[in-house]
Design brief:
10 helices; binds adenosine-5'-triphosphate; ATP hydrolysis activity; 28% strand; ATP binding; four-stranded antiparallel sheet; 235 residues
Length: 235
């Protein structure tokens, strides 16, 4: 297992937003976490990336304990987080934003190579490399956020609602990019409100309901599950 979360609880102040969550991410796979607003999806991702301390359980990455590590160390271990709402630096240029993703790396040549490969993957970012990030469209900002995460040379990418607020054709483009980076060997944890899209992309899925894991299974099986169809797919 690349990442394993065992009986994890985490929250804000004294309120546990997620309780007793266990999630396994095999190397090279796409795992999705679906659930309603406030179910605890973002909280789970933030616990994985060390942005939020956990109050119970343990998290291992490539066999090593990572819970309790600061987020910067977790990134250095190979986990990149593409947060909800992209969180790019609005006043910095596209290229400066991308370079922030590599701030912990010492291999200068590797960073230049990866910058070139991000520009090859996202030609629009190359065209706009000197443009201030806040002037980019929502889809371009999402690509920038993904590009920035790739600049840390991760083995696992955590993506929080990458389709949010984007037009259907851009959502298709983002989906294709997720498939592409996964096909190149990157493992992905995908949080989505768009359950249809998430179950189509993922190998395995977890359903969170009010902070607990209500269901899990192969994505195709959950797609055919009656409860999932009624509650999340509107069928
Ligand atoms: P959404 O899709 O709406 O982002 P989610 O499934 O990602 O939902 P979380 O954002 O993880 O859900 O929220 C889980 C619970 O934790 C909610 O009850 C939410 O109100 C609470 N919560 C989230 N962030 C904070 C915070 N910074 N302080 C206090 N409570 C929070």
């Amino acid at each position: 297992m690349l990442l394993e979360m065992k009986s994890v609880s985490a929250g804000y102040g004294r309120i546990a937003a997620v309780r007793d969550i266990s999630i396994r991410v095999p190397e090279g796979k796409i795992v999705t976490i679906i659930g309603a607003n406030g179910a605890g999806k973002t909280t789970t991702l933030r616990a994985m990336s060390g942005m939020l301390p956990i109050t119970q359980g343990e998290i291992t990455f490539d066999g090593k304990r990572i819970d309790g590590m600061p987020a910067s160390k977790v990134v250095a271990h190979g986990i990149a987080h593409v947060p909800e709402g992209r969180r790019i630096f609005p006043d910095m240029t596209v290229e400066e934003n991308l370079r922030t993703g590599a701030f912990l790396r010492k291999d200068k040549e590797g960073v230049e190579r990866d910058l070139a490969s991000v520009f090859t993957r996202f030609p629009r970012l190359r065209e706009r490399r000197r443009q201030r990030a806040q002037t980019m469209s929502g889809g371009e900002q999402q690509m920038l956020a993904i590009g920035r995460a790739l600049m840390s040379k991760p083995r696992l990418m955590l993506m929080d609602e990458p389709s949010m607020g984007l037009a259907p054709v851009i959502v298709e483009e983002i989906a294709r990019i997720i498939e592409e980076i996964n096909a190149e060997g990157l493992s992905v944890v995908l949080v989505e409100q768009n359950a249809e899209l998430a179950l189509e992309l993922a190998d395995h899925a977890y359903v969170l309901e009010t902070g607990r894991c209500a269901l899990e299974g192969p994505a195709g099986e959950l797609h055919d599950n009656e409860h999932v169809r009624a509650a999340y797919l509107g069928i």
